[in-house]
Write a sequence for this structure.
């Protein structure tokens, strides 16, 4: 009986291994940087082994003619509290999730599942930096807060000890909020620990101040006014930063939380899209994130809606795809993902239609591979 079980395990291991080697042939490829027509991609042992038109060898072949191959997606702003949410994301081709505030003990458990094929990888901020009774403290779990700049060093040290991947700060004046002096100290301490520091804002003036103080990015875009040109010019000249605008969330909360009618909501949407285009036009990287489960947004297919918003803002579709593939991978340094190039992890999506032609085609995903394994 033991022999049978051993042989069965060996057979299962062999089948799993064999599924990791295949060739996607004659496909249109977005490799994370550029689009390459009529090329092939070889996957071996979960990695991209070769990209080119004339790959030789005896491999299982997947016919890519008329199809579109691209890196799997990353959602750059989520709040995950259950493994089922990670499964929901993976089934939509969203294989990386950047969590921006949650229970550290739960996040630690979920990050241990990163290698599971049918589960999205979670990268997390742990607890976000906020003030006593500030935004982020209202969700039913205890959150360590800050009251003065001197608190920043220990607070960041505690997050790093908890194993966080990045640091999230909340500057939100609709509730009690930390000062810009505290935020500046957190950013400084995060950088000393070699952690990316991102900030939740809703007001333009707060956005300008935190970016001036060295924040690496914003996890929302401002919605109160257009950024003055002098502010934008100064930021672009003197600082390197990115923005995760969360258009879908900002649009959905207008009637849901602020009681705005359709016409008023449409005006907010237009203002946000115009600001995104201004940022893009001066070279600010735009990353895609949706802030689920806020506004009842899901962890999976709702990211497609965010990409459509970015396309509507006037960002070329190849750069819209970067916003959810190569840009998050590089800006958050989350590992060997986000590209379909030699040596990268084979996280790939095979689509029936080309999203470069029309971003609505992002919903035509037919196969999802995580590290070369098919996601169910």
């Amino acid at each position: 009986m033991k022999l049978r079980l051993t042989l069965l395990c060996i057979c299962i291991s062999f089948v799993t291994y064999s599924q990791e080697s295949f060739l996607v042939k004659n496909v249109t490829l977005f490799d994370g940087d550029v689009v390459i027509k009529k090329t092939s991609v070889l996957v071996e042992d979960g990695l991209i082994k070769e990209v080119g038109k004339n790959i030789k060898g005896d491999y299982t072949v997947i016919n890519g003619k008329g199809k579109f191959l691209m890196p799997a997606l990353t959602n750059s702003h989520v709040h995950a509290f259950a493994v089922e949410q990670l499964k929901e994301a993976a089934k939509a081709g969203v294989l990386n999730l950047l969590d921006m505030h949650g229970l550290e003990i739960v996040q630690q458990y979920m990050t241990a599942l990163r290698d599971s094929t049918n589960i999205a990888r979670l990268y997390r901020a742990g607890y976000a930096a906020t003030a006593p009774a500030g935004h982020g403290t209202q969700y039913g779990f205890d959150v360590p807060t800050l009251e003065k700049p001197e608190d920043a060093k220990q607070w960041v040290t505690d997050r790093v000890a908890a194993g966080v991947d990045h640091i999230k700060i909340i500057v939100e004046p609709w509730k009690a909020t930390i000062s810009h002096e505290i935020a500046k100290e957190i950013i400084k301490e995060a950088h000393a620990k070699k952690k990316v520091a991102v900030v939740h804002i809703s007001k333009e003036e707060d956005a300008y101040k935190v970016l001036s103080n060295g924040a690496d990015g914003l996890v929302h875009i401002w919605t109160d006014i257009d950024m003055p040109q002098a502010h934008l010019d100064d930021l672009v000249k003197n600082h390197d930063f990115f923005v995760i605008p969360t258009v879908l969330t900002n649009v959905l909360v207008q009637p849901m939380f602020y009681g705005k009618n359709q016409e008023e909501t449409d005006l907010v949407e237009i203002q946000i899209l115009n600001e995104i285009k201004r940022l893009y036009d001066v070279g600010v990287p735009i990353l895609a994130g949706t802030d689920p489960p806020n506004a009842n947004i899901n962890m999976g297919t709702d990211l497609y809606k965010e990409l459509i918003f970015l396309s509507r803002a006037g960002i070329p579709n190849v750069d819209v795809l970067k916003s959810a593939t190569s840009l998050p991978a590089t800006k958050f340094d989350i590992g060997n993902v986000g590209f379909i190039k030699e040596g990268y992890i084979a996280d790939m999506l095979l689509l029936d239609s080309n999203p470069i032609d029309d971003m609505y085609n992002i919903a035509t995903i037919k196969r999802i591979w995580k590290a070369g394994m098919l996601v169910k």
Observations:
- DSSP finds twelve helices and 15 strands in the chain.
- The first strand starts at residue 22 and ends at 30.
